[in-house]
Amino acid sequence: MDKKAAIWISVVIYIALGIAVVTIVLTAGIPLIQKMKDQNTFVQTKDLLLALDRNIRDVALEGPGARRFLSPVEITRGNLYIFDENETILWDMKTKARMQEPNMVFEEGPLKSLLNETLVVGEYHLKVWLNYTDFINITPKSETTGPFSGIFNIYVKHVGFDDKNLPIVELEITT
Hints:
The protein is an alpha+beta fold.
């Protein structure tokens, strides 16, 4: 066999092996990277919700006229909901990362989280929420009804007391 042909055959084989190795590494690595990103998003959002909770409680205890400003609030994945009918602030996201035991509510201070399996194998629905029932009357005020995602600001204001003598805390969301 000709020496030049042998060199070209070797080059083609090495390139094919290199492409195969890169493909295998990317196939295995991308899901792991996505799971790490989801875990990081979960931790960041928990910290954000705990900071929001701290501000809501401070404003509620200080009395009418108290206010705080959180900026910027960033929800990179998932959605944030504010429900005034059951005094709940909820963040949810779909993920392939199993961040906690499914179907069990975990409490971290005032924060609760739940990971449910979806109909898709290996996919989960993560919910993290704060509940103020019988403690604070949460009233959302926004140009849109939600859900909220992206970058926005939250004004936390104590606007008075309701008929049950619970503090009314208004959450004004602006972009």
